[in-house]
Structure formats: structure tokens, C-alpha cells
Amino acid sequence: MVDNPPKPGDLNASSRTSGNPFLRITGLNKSFGGVQALKDVDLEVYPGEVHGLIGSNGAGKSTLIKILSGDIQKDSGDIFLEGERLAIHRPQDAYRLGFSFIHQELNLIPKFSIIENLSLGFRKPTRFGLIDWKAVQRNAAQVVERVGLTHPLDTPVEELSVADQWLVSIAHALMREIRVISMDEPTASLSSEESERLFKVIHDLTTEGVAVLYVSHRLDEILSLCDGISVFKDGLCVLTTDRQHATKKSLVEAIVGGQVSDGDLTPLTDIDARPVVLETKGLSRGEKVVNVSLSLHRGEVLGLGGLVGSGRTELANLLFGIDRPDSGEILLEGRAFAPRSPSEAIKRGIGLVPEERRSQGLILKDSVDFNVSLTNLKSLRIRKYIFLLNRRLSAKITNAAIKRLQIKTPSIQCPVVNLSGGNQQKVVIGKWLSRELKVFILDEPSRGVDVGARAEIHAKIRELAAEGTGIIVISSDNEELPRVCDTVMVMSEGRVVGTLKGKEITKEAILYKSFEHPALERG
Amino acid sequence: MVQPGKRKGSKHGTLLAVSKFGTIIGLVIMFLAFSIAVPTIFPTFRNMVNIANQATLSAIISGGLTVALIIGEMDLSIANVASFSGVLVTGLMVQSGLPVWLSVVIVIAIAACIGIVNGLIITKLKVNSVVATLGTGSIVIGLNYAYAQGVPIASGLPEPFKQIAFGKFLGIPNNIAIMAAVLLVLWIFLNYTEWGIQLKATGGNASAARLSGIRVDRIKILGMSIASVCAAITGILLASLIGSGTSGAADGYLMPAFAAVFLGSATLRDGDFHIVGTLVGVFFIGIGFNGLAIFGVPTFVQYYFRGGILILAVGLSSVARVLAAK
Prior knowledge:
By secondary structure, chain A is an alpha/beta fold. Helices cover 32% and strands 25% of the residues of chain A. By secondary structure, chain B is mainly alpha-helical. Chain B starts with 9 loop residues before the first helix and ends with a helix. Classes of the chains: A alpha/beta, B mainly alpha.
């Protein structure tokens, strides 16, 4: 009884169904200024089903969720709930329909108690015109029991573990009749026992007929929890399958898109013979960086792969003096190196292109020249002890960077806010070009950058490496690392879980390693 | 790729132009209006000197405040520092018998220390600058009264000290020359030195500035001490001009200074604080006050003008920024 003909990738969708789809989406399209975020997406969720949504960052999962929640408007396509076509124009519409959305960043007020959070947004029973908290507690008792919260209800939620905070969020959703609940990466910061508890609650929900949309990067979890699974890539729903038919391998292939692109990179073969510029030994900081040892050679491009939140940026922060390690050491050209601030790291020849270019990389309202000059101010003095700036030299440096990186800007005085994403990113890279860098760290260098600029940035990375700089590239885009790296270290939960060299570097290999759980394997 | 800067509609463009040149146009209109209304008193040489005298003091304290606002911090203690400086400089000369130059140097050094303390409170204790300088401002008032018990120090001021304000340098009244010098130094400092660039970068995006190797905390402390030092120079000049060190002499400079700097930020730029704009703002407010006083409007109207102009100024500045960002 499936209305739409199954897709080619859809092996046997009807095997999990027993009746009409509960939530059905057909031909959903959405574009943002020329970028097609969703293309003709069809999706069916059956009553009492946990439906997993997976795919790389930016593949379209969150756009789909946001359309369902009324945060953004679809361009075309239909959404049906129990056969009835829905019009969701505002978040209130979704709310009225019994849709509930729990985002990764939980929407709780930390200082409020459990009961205060649960009753947030609901009309509370009153006595003599004042809130009757006893009655509120009575109303909430059943919900609290359903999710298995054991804490006293007057505990502030900030004192609860993340897992319990999720239970509170789910309980809050259950304070009213809901039909569809979406959860965005609930287990991202949970231990495996905590995850199990959560899965049990989710399972109980489905037996009551609630449909669950479950977004996660963890394939093992998807495979054990979800009945139906939809894989997104570049705005397309490329695979619809179910638990019986899916394997980790088939999901990975769908996520990365099957074909293997080798690129035209010839990885260096003499890396081990080259001198080491940067070395870390057992570097640790909290839970985010655990016992990381690496060595970076002259002219080597070292990639750090893994999922968002696997500790790569935190590792870079240690190398650049933003944070300090709890233990372990860093050696720069064989000498101990313990930077206490970015300015110290820069003095020793380290450069960083940060993850968030708009909030961390640029002074948006100021000019290209201004931004490029920031890392070179000392060298721009007219004389060593005369502190006036040599504007002409500054312009020369900026023009050289513009030429070398092919930055498209009307003039060096143009505010960077007016440049496109790719050109802004090139300005951030350009800041470092006039310095003698020993180590250059680029965190997500091509995020939000168009394809052309991305290729140019990759070429410049190789060029800088050829000049002898040791380069570290952090990327969650697994197609990027095979294109630029000689070596790739994959991190998971703060630890290095694998090292790939030369021909071993493929997006599949990186992805496989990314899903490893070091904590589980090591007991 | 869509470039936001190029999408600006003509409506935004017109609005931006109005706000950019609005203060200058307003200044001219106000000047003409007062000249026509009271031709015998307003557009006279004597009155112009009077306006300039008032404006010089305001311009220096506002110049310092501009630096504080550039780094993204408020300084509410400047007027108190100025008052204290006037009392202290006269006290050091009359009561302690120190030479004029040494008294001035000591007062400026103490003001720099107050600025450093402000900066340390903001950067190390992470206290919001409004609260921090409200606190230090009150402490400075305390110091002021502790030093002079609120009694004006008027008699026995050495002649050279009075000459600071009343003397002439190359035919130009000293205080105008001093104002020009201070603002010129600030302008060069902000636009042509590495610290100036670092101050702007820190105010523009502290996180990006830090990752570019700028020591953001030090730069903020520097900015706060520049604000205090400019306030002290204002206080010293005021004491010289009125011939006494009076406890609350400069207290009234705070609001006009804020109004001037914010008016200036909407002048010629999109809500960026800058010295030239501040100067325009100072004259706008100076001429406004002067004209109203000549009209003989009651005191309460002058307060309306003060409050209204402050809100208008900050409003213009914010609107300019919003429009520029669209």
C-alpha cells in the first residue's frame, strides 16, 4: 500500500509497513539564493516508527526539519499527516499539529527547576490567582514517570547530566499530545549507558504511536534504533531503506556518493626523511583532546579528519596558544613549545585560519587592507623605533596577497563584508602569506566556499607546503582531505583513532574511521 | 555569489547619505538660524571665541571618549576624572608648592593610572565597562573630596598656570592650539600607528583580533587610559580657564561628550567612531547650547536639549550601522 513507486535504491520499503504512511512528504524543494538545499525529496514515516535521517553536514537534513517546524518555508512539495495535507507557515502551525522538535542545543532554562521547565509555555493551574505548584506537579507526574526521570522535580536542570536534560526536554514535549517528535543528535554528548536509557524512552514513545525523526551521525546507533532510514546527500534523498536491509557499508556509500574521486594529487613519498617541524607527545586537555601524539614534517600536509566535535579544533587551539594542555608536550623544531597566547604562537611561526571566518577570522566592517595588515603590524613600521605605519608597504603586501590568491575585490579599501564567502576566506589566508610560517593550521578552509574558490584554496595549500611550511588541515568534508593531504589522522572523541598515508587516504576510509568509538574499543 | 554590499537599495543609499551628512547640514542650518534670529549677539567675534573656548574642552574629553568607544567600551568616569584633575593640579601648586609643569605631569600620570585600573577591571575581572567606570567614577569623586574637602582652590594660583588657557601660541589662543594638538595626535595615532589599528581591530572583533596575535587585554587597557588622560587634560584646562580647582567643575561634560561622539559616529561614516566626526559633534552641541543660552531659554529647556540630543545621537549612530549592514 505504498502510494509512490519505490525508488531504485529503495530495496523493499513495504516490508516495514503495515498500512498507510503516517507522515508523508512528496516532491519537497527548497533553495537558498541559488543553492538547492532540497531537491524533490520524498519521505514516508509510518506510525510508531523511528525514522533515521543521516548525511554529511549540509546535506539537507536540517533544512527538512526546519520546514517541518515552520522555521523556513518550502518552495514546493506537499506534506501530509495521516493523509491530510498540511500548511505549515509558522512555528505555531507545527506546534498546533502536534509536532515537537528537540534541537541539539536544548531549549531549557538552566537555572529553572525541572518542574519550572516542564510547565514553561503552558497555562498553569492557579489557586487564589497564584500559581498552584502542587497541581502543576500532579499534572507533570505522569509525564515524568513516562520518561523515567528520577530526580526531585525542584532540581535546577543545570545540575542534571546532559542525558537527564534530554529526558526533561522529551518530557516537556510530552506535556501535550504530540504526533511527531524530531530529535537532533541526542547522543552527541552521552555515554553509551545513557544512550541506552534514551533509546528505551524513544522506544516507549513509538509504542504509543508517536513517530520519531532521529538525526544522527552515528551509524551503529541508527542501525540498531531506527526502523526506516533516509540518507541525504547534496539536497537529495539518495537512499531510503530500513533496518533489515541497511548495512554500515551501504549507508557510508550513500553518504559519500559511491564514486571514488582520486584527484590529481601525488602524495609525497619522502615524508619520513624530512625534518619534523612540529611534534606533540601525549597532548591532553579534558575530554576533548586525549593523549594525542603527532609529528608534522617540513612540507607535509597533515589532515585531521573526523566528525564535528571530535576534538580537532580543540587540538588546534592547543597548538596555537588559545588553550593550554593539561598534560603532554609540544615540540617546535625539536624545542619545547608552550604558547600561552596566540601572539606567542605567531611569534614562533605558527599561523591559524580559524573555523568561523566571520566571527573569528575577520573584522568585517574594515577593509581588505586593514584585515591583511593585522598580522604584520610590526613589520609595517616606517623605522624600527618610529611607530608610524608604512601605508604604502601595507598596500603592497595586500596587493601581493590579492594577486597570489586571486581575491576578487574592487579595491584594497573595500570592506570585507562586501566580499563573497570564498573571497573572504582568501583574505583570512592572505593575512598569513607575508609571514615566514613554520606551521600553518587551517580549520575548515573551504566551508561555505564555492567550488571554484575551493579548488584555488587547495592549490595554494599545496603550494605553501611545497615552499616548506608544515600544514595542518582540519576538515569535516571528507572529500577535501584526500585532495590535499599527504597524511590524514582521524580523530574520534578526542583521540586519534587511525592514521592514513598516501593512497590509503580515501573518503570512505576516513568515514569508516570517523565512526569508531575509541572508548568502547579500549573498554 | 550575491554580494550584500551591492544589493543596497537606493532607499538605503539616500537614508545613509542623509545620516552621513545630516549632522554637518544640521550644523550649518543651526548656525544660520541663530545668526538670523539674534544677529547682534550670536555671530559676533566675541561669541565665536566663547563657543570655541567651550568647544575646546569638550573636544578633548570627547576625543578620549572616542578611543574608549572604538575599543567597544563605555567610560562613565571621564567627567569625574576631569573634575578631580582640576582640583588636584591646583592643589599640588597652591598647597604643595610644586612647579606648574610638575603638577601637570603628576596629574596626567595619575589619570593614566585611573585608566589602567578601569582597563584592568574590565579585562581581568570581566566587569562590564558601564558598571566598572560607574564604580571607579564614584571612587574618583571620593578622592576629589578627600583631597580638597569640596572647597574650591582659587587663590594663589601661579600666573603661568593661568596662561595655559589664556595665553597665545603663534597668535592662536592656547586652548585652541592644545585642542588641535591633542586631536591631531589622536587622529594620527588611530590611523597611522600599529596601536591605532590594534584598537580598531579589538573593537571591531575582539576574537579575530586575538587570533591575529593582538593582545586584546593590553589594547583595551591602553584605550581606557587614553580616555582618562584626555579627561585630565580637559580638567586642567578648565581649572586654568575658570581660575580655580572646583570639585564638581567638569561633571557636566559627560553627557555632551557622549552625545558628541555618537553624533560624530553617524557623520561621514556608517556608525564608526572617529575623531573628525567627534569634532563635528562637539561643535554641533556647542553651538546648540550657546544659541539656546543666548535666546535665554529657561534651564529646563536646556536639559531637554541635552537629553534629546543624546538619544538622537545614539539613535542616528545605530541606524547608520544597521543601514550599512543591510
